[in-house]
Amino acid sequence: MDLDVFVMTHRAEWDRLDQLLRRGRRLTGAEADELVALYQRAATHLSLIQSSAPDPMITGRLTQLVARARATVTGTRRASWRDAARFLTQGFPAAMYSSRHWWIPTAVLSTLLAAIIGWWIGTHPEVQSAIAAPEELRQLTRPGGEYETYYSSHPAASFAAQVWTNNAQAAAMCLVLGAFLCLPVIWILFLNMANLGVGIGLMSSAGRLDTFLGLVLPHGLLELTAVFVAAGTGLRLGWTLIDPGPRPRRDALAQQGRAALGMAMGLALVLFVSGLIEGFVTPSGLPTWARIAIGVLAELAFLAYVYVLGGRAARAGDAGDIDDWERSAELPTAA
To answer: In Å, how far are 10, 212, 243, 314 from 52, measured between CA atoms?
Structure first.
């Protein structure tokens, strides 16, 4: 495309659109229709220039012009409680349901890795001695030791807040760093599973694996599921960078990035619930079976939320992205 010829051909339309925008609401019916038509044409022109002959000055001018026209045509929309309710009942669960083929294998493989590490440490005394001195290991694993007192080391409210902050940061890192070709997400997952595997191995070697699982399972089921969802979404985002499919890479990444941003907000709420369980239920005086039952019920409620609400919303066409009218127009691509 000859950019100079293109600009000369359409400059009068852009100037006319700018003139109509400057008049604000003082437009006749015919002028309002003209503004809409010019806005649509300018958006198409911007897409053509960006894809064929990107020029910073012309692209900048058209971007600003199209944004002003878009605001005039669509009006300003404010978020409401209805938007929040729609996000929680449709957008967020639909996004998790749509990405289940990423986070479920991530969960299975990660859990298997933690089990293998736990078995390796628990059955090899030389590995245990490489982790810490025998006396230090006894302090960790004995009744009333550090593994047990960790969950009651601080007041429940502050401990829950600390746990929620740490887990939310880990989930956010998985979501954000997925764009770096998946590698940081795999490393974060490995560190988390290695830490879990060390606890399993050391406590099983001391004959206290049941105690350890009784402390971890109440909150760990929901907490780890949220981390797996975040990691799976991050891996999906990274793979989109490698293989965007039939869409332009920029458009594919934009869609997955918007969905990941929504997932971050939703998972923060899930991890908040997990933090409450870890702060108030795990260190409580409830019997072990009761604490584990609370964790299992929380996990089942989460899975029902994903598969019932999310499945219904996904089948209705919701993918966790923003509405069509809120997105920039995209040029059609060949299948």
So the answer is: 16, 60, 21, 34
